[in-house]
Design goal:
Blueprint lengths: L11 H15 L4 H4 E6 L2 H14 L7 H4 L6 E6 L3 E6 L2 E7 L5 E2 L1 H6 L6 E4 L4 H5 L6 H5 L13 E6 L7 E4 L8
Parallel strand pairs: 6-7
Antiparallel strand pairs: 1-2, 2-3, 3-4, 4-5, 7-8
Length: 179
């Protein structure tokens, strides 16, 4: 396994690899400070989560058994600030905050890009979006950007002009029609 892979497990060896990745990507991440606990889920809870994911992301239904195989252990990693990370076989798949909606990780979105509707920003916005900037209306309506129909509060994949993979996962604060 490479040092830049996304894995999370309650065992010490895999946890160290995850911590290295998270430190490399997000700055300081200390398991003792940031992770409250790690819980393996029961089958009934997994079914409920799968139903919630199907309701939230209708395009994921045919692929859900491939993403979350029945026999593989599914765990919730609880972090501080009420963040929960859904993992299967140590791979981070979804996260949410305060019992809110699930958001797919970028790695999952790169494997299954069709699970979220897309919005596209122009080339000039790439460095700002990757730095964590919010995307304003002009960023989605300028030349090079593409604004696809989406309702307010829809979770979307933010794509970039001329790029294959998503830059980030976002939430539409306004509908595409209002923009």
């Amino acid at each position: 396994m490479t040092s830049d892979s996304i894995t999370f497990s309650c065992s010490d060896m895999s946890t160290q690899k995850c911590l290295f990745f998270l430190q490399k990507s997000f700055g300081r991440f200390d398991e003792k400070e940031n992770v409250s606990n790690c819980i393996q889920l029961k089958t009934s809870v997994i079914k409920g989560i799968k139903n919630q994911l199907i309701e939230q992301f209708p395009g994921i239904e045919p692929w859900l058994n491939q993403i979350m195989p029945k026999k593989d252990p599914v765990k919730i990693v609880r972090c501080h600030e009420h963040i929960e990370i859904l993992t299967v076989n140590g791979e981070l798949l979804f996260f949410r905050q305060r019992e809110g909606p699930f958001y797919p990780t970028l790695r999952l979105l790169h494997k299954y890009p069709f699970i979220l509707p897309h919005q596209q920003v122009d080339k000039g916005a790439i460095k700002f979006v990757l730095s964590g900037a919010n995307i304003m209306c002009p960023g989605l309506t300028s030349p090079g950007a593409k604004l696809y129909p989406a309702a307010a509060d829809t979770i979307v994949a933010i794509m970039a002009e001329g790029k294959q993979h998503a830059l980030c996962v976002g939430v539409m604060k306004m509908s595409a029609e209002d923009m």
